Structure formats: C-alpha cells, structure tokens
C-alpha cells in the first residue's frame, strides 16, 4: 500500500496568506465619512425626504467601461448604486499606493470632512473657496493660468454639490453673501458651470419674491460679478453675449433693467480701460446690441454717473468703425462740467472724484482717436477744453493733478493737469 502524504504538507503548494494592514486613524475617519455621507444621501432619496439630485452641467470624470455602476442594470438598483459609490472610494484601491495628500489638497479634505460631519456653513465654504483661489493665484500671476488651476481644483463643483445636498439651492439665499457669491461665480465660470449660474439668475428674474427675495436683492451685484468673471476668464465677446442674453430674460419677466446695470457698466468700462487684454473681441452685431442697452438705464434715479458717458466712450472702441461723435457731443454739454463744481474738497467727494477721473479718460481717448485720424487741431481743442473747464472750478489744482496721477507743479493749468 502506498502511504499518502499528510494533508498539511500541501500547504507548501500555496502562497502564504497575509492579512491586510490595519487602516490608520486618518484613513479610518475618511472611510467613515464616505460611508455615512453616501448612506445618508441615498436613504433620504429613497424615502422621499429629498428629491434625487439631478446631474450638474459639468462632469469631472466619465465612467469607465469596466465600472460596474456604469451598466444600465446597476444604475437602476439603489443598493448597487450605494455599493458602487463605496467601492469607488480611493481607500479600497489597494492596488494603488495610498499617497499622503499634498498641501494643495488640504483645503479639499477639510471641506469634505466638514460636509460629512454636517458642519459646513456658508462662511466656511467662502473661506474654502478663497483659500483654493489664493493657491491658484500663487502659482502664477497670469490670469489664464490661474483660471486653469481653479478649474482643476474642482472647488466650485464641490460647493455647488453641497448647496444642492443641503437644500440651499431651492431659495438661493447664499447669493446674498456678496463675497461668497463673487468668488463662487469665478470658480463656476472657470469650471464650466456658467449655464447653472444663468439658471439661477433666470429664476430670480422670474421670481415672485418669497424665499428668493433676499437673493433677488443681490441679483444686480452678483450678475455683475458673474459677467466680470466671464470677461476676465473667457474674453470680451463672452461677456458681451452674456449681458445681451440677459436682456431677453428681463424683458420676458417684465423686471426692471437695473439688475443689468452693474454688469453693463463693468463690461463697458473694462472694454475702454483694459482693451488690449480682453482676448477675442465681440462681433460687430453683438457690440452694437450691447451698446444699445444703454437706453434702458437713462431714467433710473439710482444711477450716479450718466450711462451715456460710458456709451460715448464705448463707441471709440467699435470693432469696425470707431467714432468720436458721441464723445464730442457729451463733452460739449455744460451740465456735465457744472456737475464737477463744488465747494468741498475734491478728494473727499467720491462721486465727484469718479466723475473727474472718467472725464479725463474720455478726453484722453477722444483726443487720441482724433489725432490718429489726422485731426490734430480737434485733438488739441479737446485737451484745451478739458483744462479750461477744470481750471475754472472751485478745486485745488494739486488735488486734481493727484487724482489724475500727474506729478509736478506749474502755473499753467494745462501742464498741471497733464494736458501736454
């Protein structure tokens, strides 16, 4: 009889089994946060406490073909969706080395931890966005590069997802926090979420009040921040088109056009003051449509500076046929110069200071255009008119020279005002 070997000797045929290393305290906490957040969200949706969250316009990552959750059957089963969200957690990817997060990722982890624990608030979300934005700007002073870094961070998407999950998107009250709304608009534009922002604005333009009243009061300023972000990150053409599109929604809702005024002024002045750095210019049709919007603001008593001054200045930057006609007509109005007169010190009157500064810019661009088309005498006459009017005002010439950034002293008002 052949003697069989002991069964225990067969163990040598198999590789030793090693138990996985225990999780660290940090990893355990992250796993707990992922489990509780996913479970609470799924439980609320299944039992009707919250509506299922629709997909956002921007997607950060497409599902892979091997992802179990990407199949139609898996998407239809809540348990599989929940299990899939857990299994996709980075902690379960044992085939990849778990790396210690870099300092650039620390704000993201703090934000996600606070959300999981139910501790996130608007002030904390504001601080998170400001921190991530500061990190992006610290990498490069180039606005295009910093905008790309903002997009890579995904911070705007995280905050929007939290606003939805916490129910704050229903009434948009978070827009009443000016700093938070402004920085959020910058991130949303950088990350391609501008369509969602426009949906919010459309809701407010058609709002009847109620829960959205506080957000509606902030609409002019926030929409101005939004168009400024588009102008900086996407170029002049995008900002012009956004304001022109907004006119349709305001007309449809019979709302006051004042909600568009800050945006219109910011884009117009950005065009005239920073023309060289605005990227692709607007088309002739869009430019003229944008300029024509000035008619909506003429009779609004809340406007401190005449919008037709910005319209006149804008015409000097027309993409195909720049014209000084409106600027010369505006500068010829005596009422404009009388508005700059006063007995108070110029530097203590903010409104008057801004008017004189804007007039100086308009005069400079008008004279420059006239000179470029060979109208040297007309150009000189514009400068002389400016010097004559300001010299006759009840203001110290040193104050005016300091306001306009002119150094030096002379008995000639034209020299003091930098008109030569």
Protein described:
The chain is mainly alpha-helical and 420 residues long. Among the domains are: 102 residues, no CATH class; 97 residues. The chain has 21 helices and no strands. Helix 5 packs across helix 8 and helix 15 packs antiparallel against helix 16. The longest helix is centred in the C-terminal third of the chain and has 23 residues. The protein is elongated. The C terminus is likely disordered.
Instruction: Describe the sheet with the most strands.
Output: none
Number of strands: 0
Q: Name the helicity range.
A: 55-70%
Cα distance spanning the termini: 120 Å
Bulk shape = elongated
What radius of gyration results from the CA coordinates? 30 Å
Percent strand: under 5%
What is the arithmetic mean of pLDDT? 77
Secondary structure tally, helices: 21
**What is the string of helix and strand elements?**
HHHHHHHHHHHHHHHHHHHHH
Class computed from helices, strands and strand pairing: mainly alpha
**Low-pLDDT stretches:** 58-75, 93-104, 407-420
Jot down its keywords.
single chain; 420 residues; disordered C terminus
Tell me briefly what this model is.
Helices cover 58% and strands 0% of the residues. It has 420 residues and is mostly helical. The radius of gyration is 30 Å and the shape is elongated.
């Amino acid at each position: 009889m052949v003697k069989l070997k002991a069964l225990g000797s067969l163990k040598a045929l198999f590789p030793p089994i090693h138990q996985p290393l225990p999780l660290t305290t940090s990893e355990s906490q992250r796993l707990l946060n992922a489990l509780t957040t996913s479970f609470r969200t799924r439980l609320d949706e299944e039992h009707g406490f919250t509506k299922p969250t629709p997909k956002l316009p921007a997607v950060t990552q497409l599902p892979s073909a091997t992802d179990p959750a990407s199949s139609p059957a898996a998407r239809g089963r809540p348990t599989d969706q929940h299990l899939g969200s857990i299994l996709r957690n980075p902690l379960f990817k044992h085939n990849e080395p778990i790396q210690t997060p870099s300092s650039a990722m620390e704000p993201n982890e703090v934000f996600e931890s606070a959300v999981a624990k139910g501790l996130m608030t608007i002030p904390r979300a504001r601080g998170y966005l400001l921190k991530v934005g500061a990190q992006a700007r610290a990498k490069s002073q180039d606005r295009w590069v910093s905008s790309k870094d903002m997009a890579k961070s995904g911070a705007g998407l995280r905050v929007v997802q939290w606003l939805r999950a916490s129910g704050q998107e229903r009434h948009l009250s978070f827009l009443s926090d000016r700093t938070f709304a402004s920085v959020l608009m910058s991130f949303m534009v950088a990350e391609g979420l501008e369509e969602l922002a426009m949906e919010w604005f459309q809701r407010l333009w058609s709002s009847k009040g109620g829960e959205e009243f506080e957000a509606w009061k902030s609409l002019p300023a926030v929409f101005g921040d939004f168009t400024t972000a588009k102008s900086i990150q996407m170029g002049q053409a995008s900002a012009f088109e956004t304001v022109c599109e907004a006119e349709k929604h305001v007309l449809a809702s019979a709302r006051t056009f004042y909600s568009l005024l800050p945006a219109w002024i910011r884009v117009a002045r950005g065009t005239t003051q920073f023309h060289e750095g605005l990227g692709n210019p607007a088309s002739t049709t869009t430019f003229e449509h944008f300029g024509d919007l000035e008619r909506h603001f003429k009779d609004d008593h809340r406007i401190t500076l005449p919008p037709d001054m910005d319209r006149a200045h804008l015409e000097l930057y027309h993409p195909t046929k720049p014209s000084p006609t409106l600027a010369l007509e505006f500068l010829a109005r005596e009422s404009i110069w009388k508005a700059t007169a006063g007995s108070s010190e110029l530097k203590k009157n903010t409104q008057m200071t801004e008017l004189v500064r804007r007039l100086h810019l308009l005069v400079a661009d008008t004279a420059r255009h006239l000179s470029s088309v060979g109208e040297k005498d007309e150009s000189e006459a514009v400068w002389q008119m400016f010097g004559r009017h300001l010299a006759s005002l009840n203001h110290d010439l040193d104050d005016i020279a300091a306001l306009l950034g002119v150094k030096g002293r002379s008995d000639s008002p034209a020299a003091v005002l930098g008109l030569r």
